[in-house]
Specification:
Layout: E1 2-6, E2 8-9, H1 13-19, H2 39-46, E3 55-61, E4 67-74, E5 77-84, E6 92-98, E7 105-112, E8 133-140, E9 144-148, E10 153-158, E11 166-171, E12 176-180, H3 184-188, E13 200-203, E14 211-212, E15 214-216, E16 226-227, E17 233-239, E18 244-249, E19 254-262, H4 265-282, H5 285-290, H6 295-298, E20 313-315, E21 320-321, H7 345-351, H8 356-361, E22 375-376, H9 394-402, E23 406-407, E24 413-422, E25 429-434, E26 440-446, E27 451-459, E28 466-475, E29 478-482, E30 487-491, E31 497-501, E32 504-512, H10 515-521, H11 559-564, E33 591-595, E34 601-606, E35 611-615, H12 623-635, H13 638-652, H14 662-677, H15 713-720, H16 723-736, H17 765-779, H18 786-802, H19 806-815, H20 831-836, H21 850-858, E36 866-868, H22 874-888, H23 897-900, E37 901-903, H24 931-941, H25 946-951, H26 954-968, H27 977-982, H28 986-1000, H29 1019-1028, H30 1044-1050, H31 1056-1064, E38 1070-1071, H32 1082-1101, H33 1103-1110, E39 1132-1134, E40 1139-1141, H34 1154-1166, H35 1177-1182, H36 1191-1204, H37 1213-1221, H38 1225-1238, H39 1245-1252, H40 1270-1283, ...
Parallel strand pairs: 1-32, 15-24, 36-37, 38-39, 44-50
Antiparallel strand pairs: 2-35, 3-4, 4-5, 5-6, 6-20, 7-8, 8-9, 9-10, 11-12, 12-13, 13-14, 15-16, 17-18, 18-19, 19-24, 20-21, 22-23, 25-26, 26-27, 27-28, 29-30, 30-31, 31-32, 33-34, 34-35, 39-40, 41-42, 43-47, 45-46, 45-48, 48-49
Helix pairs in contact: 12-13, 12-17, 13-14, 14-18, 17-18, 18-19, 21-22, 21-65, 22-24, 24-26, 26-64, 26-65, 28-58, 33-34, 33-56, 34-36, 36-38, 38-40, 39-40, 40-42, 41-42, 42-45, 43-45, 45-48, 46-48, 48-51, 51-52, 51-54, 52-54, 54-56, 55-56, 63-64, 64-65, 64-66, 65-66, 65-68, 66-68, 69-70
């Protein structure tokens, strides 16, 4: 009998929650649907309840293993909750769902996103679903199946109420199965087999159809497949794993077991053919279709019914959730959800007037078999599709009613017959269970017969099917499985509970907490007879925490009841008596049934209706018992193992047992095990535990003795001889610094007991010894398990003694000489009995020794394979495999496990296949990896974590730590993230996660960048940001969202950012700082101030464009608020009083601030980062202005900005129409441009239609004429180019080519600002055909180049054709152009279009057209500003020839121009127009500079910068000199603006100070003296400023094709003369620079702190024909060049001097995509600070920086360094060092002074300590400091704990601690590891090929030879002293003297000197002299070092 704890009354959580539920109040009416007239009456009857509402629930164990989930159903409401099992208050509601009608079924189900379609495809189907699984809740109503997930409602499936009632629904492996309720009428008058409807259906996905099931009868499904339509078959049970179902056949009372699998193609063809032939042979198809009961009606089409809000009302604990029905993008396209009837049979018959032959002809293809099983709809064949599933529209549905095409419903699932069991009655329930030894059972609960039938089953070898075996029966009324215990709980005939494992009875269950039950069972506790035997401390190792009050049945007086409470229970069938005979047992307490099983919990239902939830106790909590049980279960025969487990469970959880300590539980287990072997445990010396604990107290304190008033010597002797003193005395003496007190050995009189040789486990004694010995060896490898070794060794010692295993006894004595005597305890098994025992084949005479095995491997010798038990000795297996692979250097593709390990295979189990391990090939490079990389990869493959390695014993883990250390600096780039975790590189893990995140987002629409706003991780910086970023609304300048942390790191030495913010601020009133002259009146002075203000306002109006560049993608808006737009302040303040000045007294142009407000809105919108996913159509409309007149213009700019950063694609079509319908010109411009940019390059049809409405050229000739503003037409025509950019769309190219030369008219149309439209058409044409000039074979008939040249050079107009001929019959009423092309209008657009089309084609023929004329006459024929455009076009065509030199720039100037430039006065030549010459010269120079700016944009190329800087300075000087008069100041100003813009493009994102200074000078030119500096100049200057600090210093410019085109459009070298000027170029196009930007700022972030930091970066360029091996080094944050031009980026490449761990990105592997992802997303690059290093710029003082550098680099001071200096280190190991050595060392006065800031308390002065203690502590501290210094210098602080354990172990060795044997082995392993690692390092260096990696080079091994030698020497000195003391014992031991006692020092000396066992030294008994003795030792292969040390000791005492 066991006690299962308190039985708590169970109330489902959902019942209490439902009591607060509002119910159906407020629910909308259900969805109307066609219904029969009597449906209202039926619904009213449904609401009438006679018996009241019944609730029910389903409980399961969650997948997390910690919680339980509950589905509670009451009426139409389902409550889904989760909580920790048995913990009150832990439950929370996940979801609450209310349906229209009462819920009939509810279940947990699993669907798959891509269930493989079986029918009609012919693809091979896998048994296992290979796609992603989704968890759902299925709720079945009367006419509907609802599918929910955790977040929202997904789908609803409409059923046919009259024809399809769901009897039950089951979750299966592939989805769910539905069982149809067969009506009574159908049973009463059954139809023939061919006409019956199937009774079972499957649903593989919520968006799939519900398809019928197939079945194949016969053995393993050998019969022909058919539909499962047998009305007598009902489902009893279904399982997901294994995939089986159990059906009950009521006709013959049999249960059949079927395998559930996917249907095959040939099976579907067979069943469809047979049904078609049968139906066609009997009746016409039309008659079958018209039959109301036919299967065709059931499978007619119904489109998907979305679960609308009218149907479902979902509530959560917090708030109501709006129900919606999203369509997953990953769903497969299927036509319908579930068939329903669309019309009556008569209607169907009339709508399908087909004859028989027509139908037959359509059914010849196997994919469209019709006949009886048809679908009355024209649905597509099931096929794989990645697109979303969309419900069919009603129009299509109505069409299908008239054009219905028969198509079969193809089955998805097939059932294969496996087994038939003839039973007496139908099973009420069935379940799967597994017994304690892995045997599987399928159980049928036959309640009527009171029997539980258990059918044993197992998998076939390929696990494709099941093999069912023997059947056993158990009397039971009810039963349920308990999966965690591998048992089942059974209600027997007496209504009592029992536990079974398989068919074997385990024990009865005593229920606690049921008063009505227990009060009748145990009434009289005082009469309970507990014998004195139970009260004996010697026989009771464990105190029972409590005894249950109980009544005393008659059987309690018998001796068997006493044994029932004994710790060791004798298993007899008559122990557990029945309580049915108890007359006091009330009937109300009888257990009626069981329900709701989880892992260890089950609910009991009593006859009175009460429910109780019980928790069954666990099998074990001790790791030692757990591993021992697992080993014995594996290695013993199944029957013996089953008996052992059952006995242990009953023993451990007997009534009265409380919580166990691990030691107490092992003591109980060992006694139970020995008793089952046959020992008399009362007479064993090991009954008392080795270490004292509470478990030593007796079970029951029978009598309290009176304490003696005075002590005696006997008390002291008793304490010295106690086991507690033996175990802990030495440790206590060591900790307290006391003198060691010896152990008083009292002679024990152990009476030799008898062993019962007929005990169940006696014959398995050798097997048990070997299994427990392997567990013992495995525990040696884990430091947490060392304490269990001393517990386990006593039991092993007894078993070895009885088996006369001399080697085993010596082995245990050497490990624990203070616990185990050399010759073991007295044997209990007689010799003759032990000799009769049979030893298994794997038993070895020499005990396996795992530490010695590893020691041998490191010595270069490959030992015999080491035995291990699978799934038990995991640590042993892993370490031997790792050590062997390292020593043998074998490949990772196929590791021969059998070569290194010997797997123990019990004789009763199946033979195992080859267990070779193969590493995942994607994680090792093609080249052979180095040894250390192999170790790390294999460690990761074996599943070892950092925590596991830290728990390994110190001498064992060093090899693994060394491999991690050696790979840490330059790990391979293709490792998994778990391997990077192993080597402590969280920075590389972060890179891998970022790359994985990018792969997940790869299916989304791609933007040029997906940058995110960086979060502040430092709390201090967050507070600072909050303080700084909360100005008043009037002072909001729109630049408060900048990343000030990054900017402070990039430019920490000046205030350039503050200066830029000042220059770009437009929200503050400007200062009018002019002085009133004496002769000027106040009125005149006010006008003068206003005129000055007007000049300043011209500059202010040009600021927003630059501010938009500066703040690009720097903020994430708050979705609940509108986006703040900074004010455009056009007022001023006059000092000193701050009088406000406005423009009220002077005349200013009307609406002069319209376009500046537009730019202001764009600037505000561009702040939004593209990755803000919450921006949707609702928020965009929410920002629509509601107040002032200027706001609509700013909102128009805001819309364009949303298009530029990709958010406008979320705008709904309805909202788009609403914007355009308002007819606001600026809104239309912003919206059209924004949508076009968002849809660029997509050829989107909807966007094309939208643009065509605003373009007459794209409308049909009969369309209605629309009054479209000219600027809107320009925006639409450039939008066409953007939507079709880089597509070479022929029609669009043809239209755009014609639009360049669009004539004025007709009548008053197209008269104003024609230049901008023509230019926009040319630019759009260039976008469509960009770079396609060399491959435009399909455009030869258009003669695009010739037409463009015609537009450039002029000539007669070509006749119009097509619709244009009729359109332009009426000439323009304003413009008379004549018959020639107006090249002033067409030339700019045609010139740039030609350059863009032939971009980089190097077509010299086309380039010749662009060369400036060489004669003065021809030069006069070309406008000077056109020469600038021609030079730009020439540079685009000859792109590869562009060079950043003065020679290249001057080469564009004709020689005739050069000879006449800068000549005047006396040197002038008559007839030469010097003004034209100078204008041509300057424009050609400006055009050439612009080409350089475009080619080297964002590169910060020094040569390009120098040449552009030269010309910028030159033109700046021209503005001050008279030479400007020769060409005109406006020409000089325009060319200066172009060159300045080009210079800023080259230096984009760099924030260069020189460029900033010249910009600051040029923008200061305001006032009457600078009349040529207008709005266009200021616009250009501030654009240059914006380029310089693009995106707050995070962005730069790209030089890709589309980027060059965008820059050309945005920087078109014709600037507006005033703020509303759009004549030549639409101002909105200036913002298209966004398309050329890309984030390339490398921002290092410390992975530990999350703060930005500085690192050294080495950038290497790719080799070209111009340069090779070019690289440079700089400090990051750093703006990288374009990645396409780089080959490598290395972070902290010089590992010897840099402070962070290096990271390498190379263009030839996967790391390059990681770098691209990091840059594109704007996330920082994770870096990790090395230990002992300060970050750059964070060192508190120069002394500490030098000290940190010294600490990690200088290796000469490691033996003399002081502990106080270590306190100055930084990094993640600082706290560890302070904990270990802070204040521990005795420091000198100077050292103490230098570290006086430390708050670590100091130790007492050295003089106050005893001399011996002082020297010992100082030596220990110095050794510890040396170790810490050594391991910090290599950046491996984790290894310090290993050395600390070794050093502490040395101190414990000196006092002969209990663990000395284990600690000595750790010292030996560390010493051997130093040499082994040295060999590994050099082997790895030899195999590694020469590499040119930057800063490559391996670090030194983790274990230095000096430290290992020092540690080994310390132990040798100690053992030399011991050897001196115990030399006589050692000689006696080696000679085999078995009569003497040997000390612990002797055992430990034998271990350290590697001396053999006496049985291995043959001939040592007769050796009388030392020389012959040494010769014998030499023959025994004793090491020379051991012999020499022994000889030295022996001869020194001769």
């Amino acid at each position: 009998m066991i006690s299962c704890g308190d039985a708590l009354e169970f109330v489902p959580f959902g019942r209490e929650y439902f009591s607060h539920h509002p119910g159906e109040v407020g629910l909308p009416p259900p969805t109307p649907s066609p219904a029969p007239p009597h449906i209202d009456l039926l619904r009213q009857l449904d609401t009438v309840s006679i018996n009241g509402s019944k609730d029910w629930w389903v409980i399961r164990h969650s997948s997390d293993g910690l919680t339980e989930e509950e589905l509670y159903v009451c009426g139409p409401t389902v409550v889904w909750s989760r909580g920790q099992a048995g913990l009150a208050g832990s439950r929370q509601v996940i979801k609450c769902m209310t349906c229209d009608s009462p819920v009939q079924h509810v279940l947990f189900a699993t669907f798959y996103t891509y269930p493989d379609q079986p029918p009609l495809l012919g693809d091979a189907l896998p048994e296992e679903p290979a796609s992603e699984y989704l968890f759902y809740i299925c709720v079945v109503e009367k006419d509907r199946v609802n599918v929910f997930d955790k977040d929202h409602l997904d789908h609803s499936l409409k059923l046919i109420g009259n024809f399809f009632q769901v009897r039950n629904v089951w979750p299966v492996k592939y989805g769910i199965l539905l069982e149809r309720q067969v009506p009574a009428t159908e049973i009463a008058s059954p139809k023939p087999d061919g006409e019956r409807l199937p009774t079972f259906y499957s649903l593989l996905h919520p968006l799939d159809e519900i398809n019928p099931l197939l079945y194949r009868a016969g053995y393993s499904g050998s019969a022909r497949p058919a539909y499962l339509s047998d009305l007598s078959q009902q489902a009893v049970f279904m399982s997901e794993d294994p995939s089986i179902c159990i059906l009950y056949n009521s006709s013959n009372s049999s249960h059949t077991i079927w395998k559930i699998r996917r249907a095959k193609l040939e099976e579907n063809n067979l069943v469809l053919q047979s049904n078609v032939q049968a139906s066609l042979g009997n009746t016409p198809v039309s008659s079958i279709l018209s039959n109301p009961g036919s299967f065709a009606q059931l499978h007619s089409y119904s489109h998907s019914h979305s679960f609308s809000p009218n149907h479902s009302h979902m509530t959560s604990p917090a708030a109501q959730v709006t129900s919606h029905s999203p369509t997953p993008a990953s769903s497969r396209t299927r036509s319908s959800i579930f068939p329903s009837i669309l019309s009556t049979p008569k209607t169907q018959q009339s709508q399908t007037p087909r004859n028989h032959m027509a139908t037959l002809s359509r059914t010849q293809s196997p994919s469209v078999f019709g006949g009886q099983h048809l679908r009355l709809a024209m649905t597509p064949s099931p096929s794989r599709s990645s697109g979303p599933r969309t419900p069919r529209t009603p129009q299509i549905a109505s069409l299908n009613e008239t054009l219905a095409e028969p198509e079969p419903l193809v089955p998805d699932i097939c059932l294969d017959h496996l087994w038939t069991d003839h039973s007496l009655a139908r099973a009420t329930k069935a379940f799967l269970t597994e017994d304690s030894v892995g045997q599987r059972y399928l159980c049928l609960m036959l309640s009527q017969a009171g029997m539980l039938r258990c059918i044993k089953y197992d998998y076939t070898n390929d696990r494709s099917s099941l093999i069912l075996g023997s059947i056993s029966s158990i009397p039971a009324k009810d039963a349920l499985p308990v999966k965690a215990l591998k048992m089942m709980i059974v209600v027997d005939g007496s209504n009592s509970l029992s536990l079974y494992t398989g068919a074997v009875h385990v024990c009865r269950i005593n229920l606690c907490g049921l008063l009505s039950f227990n009060s009748s069972l145990f009434k009289d506790f005082s009469s309970l007879n507990i014998s004195s035997r139970l009260q004996s401390p010697a026989t009771t190792p464990l105190r029972r925490s409590s005894l249950l009050t109980s009544s005393r049945p008659a059987s309690s007086l018998e001796a068997k009841f006493e044994v029932g409470l004994s710790p060791v229970i004798t298993e007899r069938s008559h122990i557990d008596g029945s309580f049915a005979d108890d007359p006091n047992l009330p009937l109300s307490s009888a257990i009626v049934s069981l329900r709701d099983p989880s892992d260890v919990r089950v609910t009991l239902e009593h006859a009175n209706g009460n429910l109780y939830r019980i928790t069954l106790p666990e099998i074990t909590s001790s790791p030692l018992v757990k591993h021992s049980l697992a080993a014995l279960k594996y290695i013993l025969p199944r029957d013996a193992a089953l008996q052992l487990v059952n006995k242990w469970y009953a023993t451990r959880n007997a009534p009265g047992s409380g919580d166990f300590s691990p030691q107490g539980e092992w003591t109980l287990f060992s006694m139970m095990l020995l008793s089952m072997i046959g020992y008399d445990t009362d007479k064993l010396a090991l009954t008392c535990p080795v270490e004292g604990s509470d478990s030593c107290s007796p079970l029951v304190a029978t009598k309290k003795f009176r304490a003696a008033e005075s002590g005696s010597d006997n008390d002291w002797e008793y304490m010295l001889s106690s086991s507690f003193h033996m175990a802990a005395g030495n440790s206590l003496s060591e900790m307290l610094g006391l003198q060691k007190v010896g152990v008083l050995q009292k002679p024990k009189e152990v009476s030799k007991g008898t062993v019962n040789t007929s005990a169940p486990l006696f014959s398995h004694l050798p097997t048990i010894l070997f299994a427990l010995h392997l567990v013992y060896e495995d525990f040696k490898l884990n430091t947490l398990h060392w304490e269990f070794c001393s517990l386990l060794v006593t039991c092993l010692d007894q078993l070895a003694s009885d088996l006369r295993g001399v080697r085993y006894l010596h082995h245990y004595w050497r490990d624990f000489p203070t616990v185990c005597p050399l010759h073991g305890p007295p044997p209990q098994v007689p010799l003759e009995e032990s000799q009769k025992l049979t030893y298994p084949g794997y038993f070895t005479e020499k005990p396996p020794h795992v530490l010695a095995h590893l020691y041998t491997i490191m010595g270069g010798i490959e030992p015999e394979p080491f035995p291990y038990i699978p799934q038990v000795c995991i640590t042993t297996k892993n370490l031997i495999l790792l050590y062997s692979v390292a020593a043998a250097d074998c490949g990772l593709q196929d590791i021969p496990v059998e070569r290194f390990l010997k797997r123990i295979s019990p004789s009763n189990q199946k033979p195992f296949a080859s267990s070779n391990i193969s590493l995942n090939s994607q994680y090792y490079s093609e080249n052979n990896p180095r040894i250390h990389e192999k170790i790390v990869l294999l460690t990761d493959q074996l599943g070892l974590t950092v925590r596991d390695i830290q728990l390994l014993s110190p001498g064992v883990s060093l090899i693994l730590m060394n491999a991690q250390h050696m790979c840490r600096t330059w790990p391979p780039q293709d490792w998994p993230a778990s391997a990077y975790h192993l080597i402590h590189r969280p920075d590389l893990v972060a890179h891998r996660e970022e790359a994985a995140k990018n792969e997940d987002n790869g299916k989304k629409p791609k933007d040029p960048f997906n940058i995110r706003v960086r979060c502040h991780h430092d709390p201090d910086s967050v507070q600072e940001v909050k303080k700084v970023s909360q100005p008043s609304k009037e002072e909001d300048d729109g630049m408060e969202t900048l990343d000030m942390d990054m900017l402070a790191l990039r430019w920490c030495e000046d205030q350039r950012i503050a200066e830029v913010r000042r220059m770009l601020c437009s929200s503050r009133a400007v200062t009018i700082n002019i002085v009133q002259r004496p002769e000027v009146s106040d009125h005149d002075f006010l006008e003068e101030q206003e005129r000055h203000l007007y000049a300043l306002c011209i500059r202010t109006m040009a600021l927003p464009v630059g501010r938009g560049m500066f703040t690009l993608c720097t903020s994430a808006p708050v979705i609940t608020e509108t986006l703040p737009i900074p004010k455009l302040n056009l007022s001023g303040k006059a000092p000193p009083r701050g009088t406000t000045i406005d423009l009220s007294n002077i005349e200013v142009p009307p609406n002069m601030d319209m376009w500046p407000h537009f730019h202001n809105g764009v600037a505000a919108g561009l702040k939004i980062a593209p990755n803000c996913g919450e921006i949707d159509s609702t928020w965009i409309v929410y920002n629509k202005p509601k107040g002032s007149l200027d706001s609509p213009t700013e909102h128009a700019g805001f819309l364009m900005a949303l298009g530029l950063n990709g958010h406008l694609r979320n705008l709904a079509t309805v909202n788009m129409h609403d914007y355009l319908a308002r007819g606001h010109e600026m809104t239309c411009v912003g919206l059209l441009l924004g949508i076009s940019v968002a849809k660029r390059g997509t050829m989107d049809i909807q966007t094309t239609k939208l643009l065509s409405v605003h373009l007459e050229c794209l409308l049909p000739p009969t369309s209605t004429e629309l009054d479209v503003p000219h600027t809107v037409q320009v925006a639409a025509i450039i939008g066409v180019g953007l939507v079709y950019q880089d597509t070479a769309h022929r029609h669009m190219a043809e239209v755009l080519l014609q639009e360049i030369g669009r004539p004025p008219g007709p009548e008053m149309e197209n008269s104003n600002d024609r230049e901008s439209y023509s230019l926009a058409a040319g630019l759009a044409l260039g976008l469509v055909l960009f770079g396609r000039g060399g491959e435009a074979a399909g455009f030869t008939d258009l003669n695009i180049a010739g037409e463009l040249y015609h537009y450039i050079e002029g000539g007669r107009k070509k006749p119009l054709f097509g619709i244009h001929k009729d359109k332009y019959k009426s000439p323009s009423y304003q413009i008379k152009e004549g018959d020639c092309v107006n090249i002033d209008v067409t030339a700019p657009g045609a010139t740039l279009a030609l350059g863009m089309i032939y971009f980089r084609s190097n077509n010299k023929a086309i380039a010749e057209w662009m060369v400036a004329p060489s004669t003065p006459y021809l030069l006069d024929q070309v406008r000077p500003d056109f020469l600038l455009l021609r030079t730009v076009a020439l540079g685009l065509i000859m792109w590869d020839a562009v060079m950043p030199t003065s020679h290249w720039i001057e080469s564009h100037v004709p020689s005739t121009v050069l000879t006449h430039v800068h000549r005047g006065g006396n040197q002038s030549t008559p007839g030469i127009d010097y003004e034209s010459m100078h204008q041509a010269y300057y424009n050609i120079l400006a055009g050439a500079c612009m080409v350089i700016g475009l080619k080297f944009a964002g590169s910060a190329n020094s040569e390009a910068f120098q040449i552009l800087w030269k010309y910028t300075r030159m033109f700046t000087n021209f503005t001050k000199r008279s030479v400007a008069e020769l060409a005109g100041k406006s020409t000089i100003e325009t060319c200066l603006n172009v060159i300045l813009l080009s210079l800023s493009m080259v230096m984009a994102g760099t924030g260069d100070l020189d460029v900033l200074r010249i910009i600051r000078y040029l923008r200061s030119r305001v006032g009457p003296s600078n009349s040529t500096v207008g709005y266009g100049s200021h616009l250009t200057i501030h654009m240059s400023l914006g380029f310089l600090f693009l995106g707050g210093g995070r962005f730069s410019l790209s030089t890709s094709n589309m980027a060059v085109a965008a820059l050309l459009i945005a920087c078109f070298p014709k600037f507006p003369t005033h703020s509303n000027d759009n004549r030549y170029h639409l101002q909105a196009l200036r913002h298209l620079y966004v398309l050329a930007t890309e984030p390339r700022l490398l921002m290092p972030i410390d992975v530990e702190t999350g703060r930005l930091c500085q690192v050294s970066v080495t950038v290497r360029f790719s080799d070209t024909h111009q340069y090779k091996n070019q690289s440079y080094e700089a400090m990051a944050p750093l703006m990288l060049p374009e990645l396409s031009k780089l080959s490598k980026v290395v972070i902290e490449g010089d590992t010897t001097s840099h402070r962070y761990w290096p990271v390498r990105f190379s263009a030839n592997n996967k790391t390059w995509s990681v770098l691209e992802t990091i840059l594109r997303s704007g996330e920082g690059l994770a870096v990790k600070l090395k230990d002992g290093r300060y970050p750059y710029g964070d060192a508190p003082s120069g002394f500490q920086v030098q000290l940190a550098h010294l600490l990690t680099q200088d290796k000469s001071a490691r033996w003399t360094i002081k502990g106080s200096l270590l306190e100055e280190i930084s990094g993640c190991s600082a706290q560890l060092v302070h904990t270990l050595v802070g204040g521990s060392s005795s420091v000198s006065s100077s050292s103490a002074t230098s570290s006086s800031s430390s708050d670590v308390p100091s130790v007492p002065a050295a003089s106050s300590l005893p001399l011996k203690f002082e020297n010992g502590e100082m030596a220990f501290t110095q050794t510890l400091v040396t170790i810490i210094y050594e391991y910090l210098s290599v950046g491996k602080p984790e290894a310090i704990t290993n050395w600390l354990a070794a050093l502490q172990g040395l101190r414990r060795v000196t006092v002969l601690s209990q663990r000395t044997g284990l600690l000595l082995w750790q010292v030996k392993l560390i010493a051997r590891a130093a040499h082994f690692l040295h060999c590994l390092t050099y082997t790895s260096a030899d195999t590694l090929s020469s590499s040119d990696e930057i800063g490559s080079g391996d670090p030194s091994p983790l274990v230095s030879a000096e430290q290992a030698l020092s540690l080994n020497k310390r132990v040798e000195l100690l053992t030399d002293v011991w050897l001196e003391e115990v030399r006589e014992e050692i000689v006696r031991y080696l000679r085999g003297d078995a009569e003497k006692q040997y000390s612990a020092k002797c055992a430990f000396t034998l271990v350290m000197r590697d001396l053999p066992l006496p049985v291995d030294v043959q001939g040592a008994e007769g050796c009388s002299d030392p020389l012959s003795f040494f010769a014998v030792l030499h023959r025994a292969k004793v090491s020379t070092a051991a012999i020499s040390s022994l000889a030295k000791t022996l001869f020194s005492n001769e």
